[in-house]
Amino acid sequence: MVSKTWICGFISIITVVQALSCEKHDVLKKYQVGKFSSLTSTERDTPPSTTIEKWWINVCEEHTVEPPEDCKKNDMLCGLTDVILPGKDAITTQIIDFDKNIGFNVEETESALTLTLKGATWGANSFDAKLEFQCNDNMKQDELTSHTWADKSIQLTLKGPSGCLKSKDDDKKNGDGDNGKDGDNEGKKPAKKAGGTSWFTWLFLYALLFTLIYLMVVSFLNTRGGSFQDFRAEFIQRSTQFLTSLPEFCREVVSRILGRSTAQRGGYSAV
To answer: Which biological process terms from the Gene Ontology are attached to this UniProt entry (predicted)?
Structure first.
Protein backbone atom coordinates (compact mmCIF):
# COMPACT_ATOMS: atom_id res chain seq x y z
CA MET A 1 0.00 0.00 0.00
CA VAL A 2 2.86 2.33 0.86
CA SER A 3 4.66 1.53 -2.38
CA LYS A 4 1.54 2.28 -4.43
CA THR A 5 1.10 5.62 -2.69
CA TRP A 6 4.75 6.49 -3.27
CA ILE A 7 4.53 5.56 -6.96
CA CYS A 8 1.35 7.62 -7.48
CA GLY A 9 2.93 10.59 -5.75
CA PHE A 10 6.08 10.26 -7.84
CA ILE A 11 4.04 10.15 -11.07
CA SER A 12 2.04 13.22 -10.07
CA ILE A 13 5.25 15.13 -9.36
CA ILE A 14 6.61 14.22 -12.79
CA THR A 15 3.38 15.41 -14.41
CA VAL A 16 3.54 18.77 -12.67
CA VAL A 17 7.19 19.31 -13.55
CA GLN A 18 6.55 18.51 -17.21
CA ALA A 19 3.56 20.87 -17.29
CA LEU A 20 5.75 23.84 -16.26
CA SER A 21 7.33 23.97 -19.69
CA CYS A 22 4.88 26.01 -21.74
CA GLU A 23 6.39 24.82 -25.03
CA LYS A 24 5.51 21.24 -24.08
CA HIS A 25 2.00 22.01 -22.81
CA ASP A 26 -0.80 21.37 -25.31
CA VAL A 27 -2.57 24.66 -24.56
CA LEU A 28 0.11 27.02 -23.24
CA LYS A 29 2.40 26.45 -26.22
CA LYS A 30 -0.18 28.16 -28.45
CA TYR A 31 -0.02 31.41 -26.50
CA GLN A 32 2.59 34.12 -25.95
CA VAL A 33 2.48 33.73 -22.18
CA GLY A 34 5.95 32.14 -22.22
CA LYS A 35 7.53 35.33 -23.57
CA PHE A 36 6.55 37.68 -20.77
CA SER A 37 6.70 38.27 -17.06
CA SER A 38 5.02 41.13 -15.26
CA LEU A 39 5.36 43.11 -12.06
CA THR A 40 2.25 45.13 -11.31
CA SER A 41 1.29 47.16 -8.28
CA THR A 42 -1.72 48.90 -6.79
CA GLU A 43 -1.69 51.60 -4.15
CA ARG A 44 -4.42 52.50 -1.69
CA ASP A 45 -4.75 54.83 1.25
CA THR A 46 -4.96 53.13 4.62
CA PRO A 47 -4.56 56.08 7.02
CA PRO A 48 -2.26 56.78 8.58
CA SER A 49 -0.34 54.56 6.17
CA THR A 50 -0.24 53.79 2.46
CA THR A 51 -0.54 50.16 1.38
CA ILE A 52 1.08 48.95 -1.83
CA GLU A 53 0.29 45.50 -3.25
CA LYS A 54 2.71 44.07 -5.80
CA TRP A 55 2.15 41.00 -7.97
CA TRP A 56 5.00 39.23 -9.74
CA ILE A 57 3.91 36.79 -12.47
CA ASN A 58 6.22 34.53 -14.45
CA VAL A 59 4.29 31.46 -15.57
CA CYS A 60 6.68 29.64 -17.89
CA GLU A 61 10.12 28.31 -17.08
CA GLU A 62 11.31 29.25 -20.59
CA HIS A 63 11.25 32.93 -19.58
CA THR A 64 14.14 33.33 -17.17
CA VAL A 65 14.27 36.65 -15.35
CA GLU A 66 15.17 37.72 -11.84
CA PRO A 67 12.15 38.15 -9.55
CA PRO A 68 11.79 41.17 -7.28
CA GLU A 69 13.28 41.15 -3.81
CA ASP A 70 11.52 38.84 -1.31
CA CYS A 71 10.16 36.63 -4.14
CA LYS A 72 11.72 33.26 -4.98
CA LYS A 73 13.32 32.33 -8.29
CA ASN A 74 10.92 29.46 -8.92
CA ASP A 75 7.76 31.47 -8.22
CA MET A 76 5.03 31.48 -10.84
CA LEU A 77 3.10 34.03 -8.78
CA CYS A 78 4.32 36.13 -5.89
CA GLY A 79 2.36 38.71 -3.93
CA LEU A 80 3.95 41.37 -1.75
CA THR A 81 2.22 43.84 0.55
CA ASP A 82 4.17 46.89 1.69
CA VAL A 83 3.01 49.43 4.24
CA ILE A 84 4.47 52.93 4.29
CA LEU A 85 4.07 55.29 7.23
CA PRO A 86 4.80 59.01 6.84
CA GLY A 87 8.50 59.68 7.21
CA LYS A 88 9.43 56.01 7.44
CA ASP A 89 10.66 53.31 5.09
CA ALA A 90 8.30 50.75 3.61
CA ILE A 91 7.70 47.59 5.62
CA THR A 92 6.79 44.33 3.91
CA THR A 93 3.91 42.87 5.91
CA GLN A 94 2.76 40.02 3.64
CA ILE A 95 4.43 37.62 1.21
CA ILE A 96 2.55 34.85 -0.58
CA ASP A 97 4.06 32.81 -3.36
CA PHE A 98 2.98 30.04 -5.71
CA ASP A 99 6.05 28.13 -6.84
CA LYS A 100 6.40 25.87 -9.87
CA ASN A 101 5.99 22.67 -7.84
CA ILE A 102 2.28 23.12 -7.16
CA GLY A 103 -0.50 21.77 -9.34
CA PHE A 104 -2.41 23.88 -11.82
CA ASN A 105 -5.11 23.72 -14.47
CA VAL A 106 -5.30 25.53 -17.80
CA GLU A 107 -8.50 26.57 -19.54
CA GLU A 108 -8.94 28.52 -22.75
CA THR A 109 -12.09 30.36 -23.79
CA GLU A 110 -12.92 32.83 -26.52
CA SER A 111 -12.24 35.77 -24.22
CA ALA A 112 -9.25 34.69 -22.13
CA LEU A 113 -6.62 32.13 -21.16
CA THR A 114 -7.14 31.06 -17.56
CA LEU A 115 -4.50 29.48 -15.34
CA THR A 116 -5.55 28.17 -11.92
CA LEU A 117 -2.83 27.55 -9.32
CA LYS A 118 -3.77 25.24 -6.47
CA GLY A 119 -2.61 24.68 -2.93
CA ALA A 120 -0.07 27.35 -2.03
CA THR A 121 0.76 27.25 1.67
CA TRP A 122 0.55 30.56 3.50
CA GLY A 123 1.07 30.06 7.19
CA ALA A 124 -1.50 27.53 8.37
CA ASN A 125 -3.76 28.15 5.35
CA SER A 126 -3.86 26.89 1.79
CA PHE A 127 -4.67 29.29 -1.05
CA ASP A 128 -5.61 29.01 -4.72
CA ALA A 129 -5.01 31.63 -7.40
CA LYS A 130 -6.76 32.22 -10.70
CA LEU A 131 -4.89 34.14 -13.39
CA GLU A 132 -6.92 35.36 -16.35
CA PHE A 133 -4.95 36.55 -19.38
CA GLN A 134 -6.94 38.70 -21.81
CA CYS A 135 -5.47 39.38 -25.23
CA ASN A 136 -4.40 42.83 -26.39
CA ASP A 137 -1.89 42.82 -29.26
CA ASN A 138 -1.37 46.57 -29.06
CA MET A 139 0.23 46.36 -25.62
CA LYS A 140 3.90 45.53 -25.11
CA GLN A 141 3.51 44.32 -21.51
CA ASP A 142 0.73 42.82 -19.42
CA GLU A 143 -1.19 45.14 -17.14
CA LEU A 144 -3.23 44.21 -14.09
CA THR A 145 -6.83 45.32 -14.64
CA SER A 146 -8.46 43.81 -11.55
CA HIS A 147 -7.65 41.70 -8.51
CA THR A 148 -9.50 40.21 -5.56
CA TRP A 149 -8.30 38.34 -2.49
CA ALA A 150 -11.03 36.68 -0.45
CA ASP A 151 -12.04 33.28 0.95
CA LYS A 152 -8.59 31.77 0.46
CA SER A 153 -8.74 32.55 -3.22
CA ILE A 154 -6.84 35.12 -5.26
CA GLN A 155 -8.06 36.24 -8.67
CA LEU A 156 -6.00 38.41 -11.01
CA THR A 157 -7.05 39.66 -14.43
CA LEU A 158 -4.33 40.83 -16.80
CA LYS A 159 -4.62 42.39 -20.22
CA GLY A 160 -1.78 42.29 -22.72
CA PRO A 161 0.13 40.09 -25.17
CA SER A 162 0.38 37.01 -22.91
CA GLY A 163 -3.23 36.09 -23.58
CA CYS A 164 -2.80 36.28 -27.36
CA LEU A 165 -2.19 33.34 -29.65
CA LYS A 166 1.20 33.03 -31.29
CA SER A 167 1.53 34.12 -34.89
CA LYS A 168 2.39 31.71 -37.70
CA ASP A 169 5.87 33.20 -37.87
CA ASP A 170 6.48 32.19 -34.26
CA ASP A 171 5.35 28.63 -34.99
CA LYS A 172 7.68 28.42 -37.99
CA LYS A 173 10.63 29.64 -35.92
CA ASN A 174 9.95 27.02 -33.26
CA GLY A 175 9.31 24.19 -35.70
CA ASP A 176 11.67 24.80 -38.61
CA GLY A 177 14.62 26.72 -37.22
CA ASP A 178 16.98 28.63 -39.54
CA ASN A 179 16.37 26.30 -42.48
CA GLY A 180 12.61 26.41 -42.37
CA LYS A 181 12.16 27.21 -46.08
CA ASP A 182 14.45 24.41 -47.19
CA GLY A 183 12.60 22.03 -44.92
CA ASP A 184 9.30 23.02 -46.51
CA ASN A 185 10.61 22.48 -50.05
CA GLU A 186 12.10 19.14 -49.14
CA GLY A 187 8.88 18.06 -47.51
CA LYS A 188 6.80 18.65 -50.66
CA LYS A 189 8.71 16.23 -52.91
CA PRO A 190 8.05 13.08 -50.87
CA ALA A 191 4.40 14.07 -50.74
CA LYS A 192 4.17 13.93 -54.54
CA LYS A 193 5.86 10.53 -54.61
CA ALA A 194 3.52 9.26 -51.96
CA GLY A 195 0.56 10.53 -54.00
CA GLY A 196 1.75 8.66 -57.12
CA THR A 197 2.34 5.47 -55.19
CA SER A 198 -1.07 5.74 -53.59
CA TRP A 199 -2.77 6.17 -56.98
CA PHE A 200 -1.08 3.07 -58.40
CA THR A 201 -1.95 1.05 -55.29
CA TRP A 202 -5.62 1.99 -55.50
CA LEU A 203 -5.70 1.13 -59.21
CA PHE A 204 -4.25 -2.30 -58.49
CA LEU A 205 -6.70 -2.92 -55.65
CA TYR A 206 -9.67 -1.92 -57.80
CA ALA A 207 -8.53 -4.23 -60.61
CA LEU A 208 -8.11 -7.08 -58.14
CA LEU A 209 -11.53 -6.41 -56.62
CA PHE A 210 -13.31 -6.31 -59.99
CA THR A 211 -11.57 -9.54 -61.05
CA LEU A 212 -12.66 -11.26 -57.86
CA ILE A 213 -16.25 -10.09 -58.31
CA TYR A 214 -16.24 -11.26 -61.94
CA LEU A 215 -15.01 -14.73 -60.98
CA MET A 216 -17.61 -15.02 -58.22
CA VAL A 217 -20.49 -13.93 -60.47
CA VAL A 218 -19.51 -16.31 -63.28
CA SER A 219 -19.06 -19.18 -60.83
CA PHE A 220 -22.44 -18.47 -59.26
CA LEU A 221 -24.22 -18.37 -62.63
CA ASN A 222 -22.65 -21.65 -63.73
CA THR A 223 -23.59 -23.43 -60.48
CA ARG A 224 -26.95 -21.79 -59.88
CA GLY A 225 -29.26 -24.26 -58.17
CA GLY A 226 -26.33 -26.33 -56.93
CA SER A 227 -24.71 -26.61 -53.53
CA PHE A 228 -22.06 -24.41 -51.97
CA GLN A 229 -19.48 -27.09 -52.64
CA ASP A 230 -20.28 -26.86 -56.35
CA PHE A 231 -19.85 -23.09 -56.26
CA ARG A 232 -16.60 -23.44 -54.34
CA ALA A 233 -15.18 -25.96 -56.79
CA GLU A 234 -16.21 -23.82 -59.77
CA PHE A 235 -14.71 -20.68 -58.23
CA ILE A 236 -11.40 -22.42 -57.45
CA GLN A 237 -11.22 -23.87 -60.95
CA ARG A 238 -11.86 -20.54 -62.67
CA SER A 239 -9.47 -18.72 -60.36
CA THR A 240 -6.76 -21.27 -61.12
CA GLN A 241 -7.37 -20.95 -64.85
CA PHE A 242 -7.21 -17.19 -64.59
CA LEU A 243 -3.94 -17.23 -62.67
CA THR A 244 -2.30 -19.73 -65.03
CA SER A 245 -3.43 -17.87 -68.14
CA LEU A 246 -2.49 -14.44 -66.82
CA PRO A 247 1.26 -14.67 -67.69
CA GLU A 248 0.45 -15.81 -71.23
CA PHE A 249 -2.07 -12.99 -71.58
CA CYS A 250 0.51 -10.44 -70.46
CA ARG A 251 3.13 -11.80 -72.87
CA GLU A 252 0.65 -11.63 -75.74
CA VAL A 253 -0.25 -8.04 -74.93
CA VAL A 254 3.41 -7.05 -74.72
CA SER A 255 4.27 -8.85 -77.96
CA ARG A 256 1.41 -7.16 -79.80
CA ILE A 257 2.52 -3.76 -78.55
CA LEU A 258 6.16 -4.40 -79.42
CA GLY A 259 5.21 -5.94 -82.76
CA ARG A 260 3.11 -2.94 -83.71
CA SER A 261 5.92 -0.60 -82.73
CA THR A 262 8.41 -2.60 -84.81
CA ALA A 263 6.09 -2.54 -87.80
CA GLN A 264 5.71 1.19 -87.55
CA ARG A 265 9.46 1.70 -87.29
CA GLY A 266 9.97 -0.62 -90.23
CA GLY A 267 7.51 1.33 -92.35
CA TYR A 268 9.30 4.55 -91.66
CA SER A 269 12.64 2.96 -92.56
CA ALA A 270 11.32 1.80 -95.94
CA VAL A 271 10.23 5.32 -96.80
So the answer is: autophagy
